[in-house]
From TrEMBL:
Entry-linked InterPro entries: STARD10_START, START-like_dom_sf, START_lipid-bd_dom, START_lipid_transfer
Subcellular localization: Cell projection, Cilium, Flagellum; Cytoplasm; Membrane
Primary location: other
Transmembrane segments annotated in the record for this chain: none
Cellular component GO terms, alphabetical: cytosol; membrane; motile cilium
SMART domains hit by this protein: START
Positions of the UniProt region annotated as Disordered: 212-268
Biological processes, Gene Ontology terms: lipid transport
Keywords: Acetylation, Cell projection, Cilium, Cytoplasm, Flagellum, Lipid transport, Lipid-binding, Membrane, Phosphoprotein, Transport
Transferase is among the record's keywords: no
Native species: Pleuronectes platessa
Protein name: START domain-containing protein 10
Domain START: 35-214
Length: 268
């Protein structure tokens, strides 16, 4: 992808939508809470040993019966509100806008101990079309945000959200992440991510959606730059200053020796 084409195009959104809605056999169900929430992982390649493949793809679908698609979209876009609902967030910063529907940002999050915490720098873009809401991101290199020594720089290959109304106050909500977390993560970490952590974050998101209208009424109710680009006060940045962050250019941190002992207690 050349510099001038780094911004997501229609093909990327179409591909992301296809992956979100796919039901083919490459998806292995890891969690099912009746009809309200399911979590799948993509079948790992046949590989012996305790470590997972470099690229890990997870998909979570939640049927939300009491919050509209528009409100859930606002929740995801409202950076100020995220500090209120996201228990995994260490640090989050919007760096610059790239176009009316794209920006670049920094995000760091907590990982289950004793795994090191992670961070990413991502180019994020969004689209509202035919009553479908989509937000996608992927990792980029930013000259002022190099990897930090106290965190592992992870890679988002393609991550995002797809939201579609199923009624005036209900929606289908899908989170999909194809990522390279870097490091040599053992199986129990991936199992915990798909079976425990992902459902927990989805439940936090649902609760955040229910509380958002009241919170927003007290916190700049008319400020929604994701809907009204003219409200965006971030500095402009030339997308050509960014480049795709490749996983192989980052140092790999071996964490497997620290956590093998947890396999038996956490992988069930």
């Amino acid at each position: 992808m050349s510099a001038e084409n780094i911004l997501p195009d229609e093909a990327m959104f179409a591909d992301f939508r296809l992956q979100c809605l796919s039901t083919d056999s490459c998806w292995l169900k890891k969690y099912d809470n009746n009809s309200d929430m399911q979590v799948w992982v993509e079948h790992p390649s046949a590989k012996k040993g305790n470590n997972v493949p470099k690229n890990h793809t997870i998909k979570c679908k939640m049927t939300i019966r009491d919050v509209s698609a528009a409100v859930m979209y606002d929740v995801l876009q409202d950076g100020q509100y995220r500090k209120k609902w996201d228990p995994t967030m260490l640090e989050s910063r919007d760096i610059a806008r790239l176009s009316a529907n794209a920006d670049v940002g920094y995000f760091a999050w907590l990982c289950p101990k004793p795994i090191k915490n992670r961070d990413v720098v991502t180019l994020r873009s969004w689209q509202v079309k035919d009553e479908e809401y989509m937000i996608v991101n992927f990792s980029v290199k930013h000259p002022k945000y190099p990897p930090r020594s106290d965190l592992v720089r992870a890679i988002s290959i393609l991550t995002g959200y797809y939201i579609k109304p199923i009624g005036p106050s209900s929606c289908a909500f899908i989170y999909l992440s194809q990522a390279d977390p870097k490091g040599s993560l053992p199986k129990w970490v991936v199992n915990k991510a798909s079976q425990v952590l992902a459902p927990r974050v989805m439940k936090c998101l649902h609760k955040a959606g229910k509380n958002y209208p009241e919170w927003k009424q007290q916190n700049s109710p008319d400020q929604k730059p994701w809907l009204y680009p003219e409200q965006n006060t971030l500095p402009m940045m030339d997308p050509a200053e960014l480049s795709i962050q490749r996983a192989d250019s980052l140092e790999n941190v071996d964490e497997s020796s620290k956590v093998d002992a947890q396999d038996s207690e956490d992988s069930s």
